[in-house]
């Protein structure tokens, strides 16, 4: 059939205009649309108005001559650091010659946009040319195996922004990666349940590849490459690691080391945490030629060690009491707050980085998605500045660079397996199923449900749409026999840490329906978060707000199929199931004859061991070691020795949660409630703090769970030298006043007899039927084909005509269709409360891997008689951001003649956070006419949303001078 094409274009979005690009590829399998507001990544509370002066645009220093010094313009100093949000882990660069204005250098996320917020660690190699990055989704910090060996590593060229993936399955910890005075990088991978072995990977940053991997028969931390060899810390001692992985002790400093770096002249600098008279302080040392010199002790414990240019190092913090002595190349930089980074020449110290969460409003006002608030201090003047950085801004490149958002290099495409049948999904409840839409609750509903569940009265009648069955959450998921009630704030803290109080996909905001929230439906995590690979066998079937995992795979019998549906689709059922799991852990701990303080379960602090077991398991007495494992022991050197209690001092703690054990994080969220960064701004209640507690939880010390039972000696460099199950702990212990008066109890926000509070929607629903201002509505083709039983937002059914189809992958009908569904999502936005969305991809070549694996084609086909029609498309308030081409095929009436095509280019972002109808223009249509939209856009990077919503056809006979392509359609 001959095809003629006419092109109509609207004005393209100006470069630099806001775009949502909700990026997080959760887990499931059929069709979808992304809610452009994401549930807030884990931030603890509203950032207070900065007391420091504001910086300029992109956090630039507004008065650089006074703050930085007169020679700032000619300086070559540069800062490279990183921070994560729901788009990925961003690398930022700031140069002193630009007054330290920040720009985004690269974004790393493996292409996975439904993983929630991202976190990571960065170091700069000795030449300053390369940044080594270890990064992972924040949700990975809740899983011991992912923390030990589940993060990804990349090397980013600082001059060009080009990133190269160098390793996967590496350790997510404050000391990883390790950089030194040259361009070698060391990475660690913890091996074994108790981290009793370590793989030490040597990376050539210039070549962008791993050179060697050595197996060290011990738990090694703080890797440090140097000209004299490769170093690390084992059992509190500084060691040199031979080529065969055998360690040799070179220094025995006092206290617990938490910083180690080599210098260009083969010296080692290190910082340790020492306890003197019950007070912990940071001590600094220089090791050279076999001798260890104590350089002094800081008055506090926030002394940090960073690398500088020319193979030098810097001690940053309260440097009172530190004297460099013979270590003349060691620079001392004073900082009024704990330092998170320092520029190459030490002219700027980063003191804080926090993501300002999206606060999208019903009226369509969009605030700071992709905005980072930074606080910096100049050691030259001692002045502090605070400002914001927009992640959309790219750094000016010395050479042209591609954008990197994962393993996208052409060479990696050759390594992809061929598209074959991936088999059957492992997880029990699928995704992109129109009959499995999950309503996202608002924070007030979650707190109400937890208040009731904590007291055993979450027994309201519930039902799963489409099943016809009813249940009561805490009847379906009963409290284990003899189990105590869980304090409400403790359960809320677990939900905050696990999912940010979300039951549905990260794409769905309160009031939206969406796919179930599933940890890793396709098994991407085992393949560097690469969404082009489906590996169902590696899937993690953690569902919903409390991430219920055991029993949620196909064939598992812990729950029947109806219970599995309830866990996946109903936040109340999921809370009840998650609480029952936590209560079972309390009983398991009790079976080991273990208890903390007075054992009263009414006190939040007394759940410390149960929370420990909830995350990493409880091992019963079978004749050998038993109790709770080493991974979550606060004495584990996996966690930074000089850390403060989670969130108590710095709300930015939530951006690097791997610095704390799981129980520490939960106690932090119980003490400092999580804000929901969407209108209305809310947070759950703080607990009822005990008398004399200073409104704080009573927390155990780092060595609280060290004793003869687990061969662990408190307050020494090597608290548990066994590095195996001998480090498991059981027994009884107390801290503070043993919960006689100071411990915290729950505080209820809702009466136990109150009914479920109203859902606080972020966006209003678009339930109003389409109305024609001129002519007659001939058909409205919705993206669900008008099936009213599929509506989850309460919209009344409307007449429909025609048919909507969605096809994925290329060629259609092949196994590639399953791959195309990976980045396809449904969300309760748009006309009548449902739309599909995906992301735009570059696929100029129809044979490209991006085209094959990511193409999504939507088709709206009419069954209308020949006549003049105006075609009108609905743009949802959120989840649509790309400039796309709607292709109108006029049809041929079945006569085999010419099927003329008209292309109307629409900026979906023009909806401006409101539901809108936009005209595609007027034309004559024959029977069989259709409109098509796909997500293949030249130059696209897989980051911008493309939505598939309703299309209306209005009969307008003789209407030849009407609206043009892209004109707003009034009256709706």
From TrEMBL:
Keyword field contains Ligase: no
Give the residue ranges for region: Disordered: 42-63, 378-403
Record's keyword terms, sorted = Signal
**Which residues constitute the signal peptide according to the record?**
1-46
Q: Locations of Low complexity compositional bias?
A: 42-53
Protein's recorded name: Transglycosylase SLT domain-containing protein
Q: Which organism is it from?
A: Micromonospora coriariae
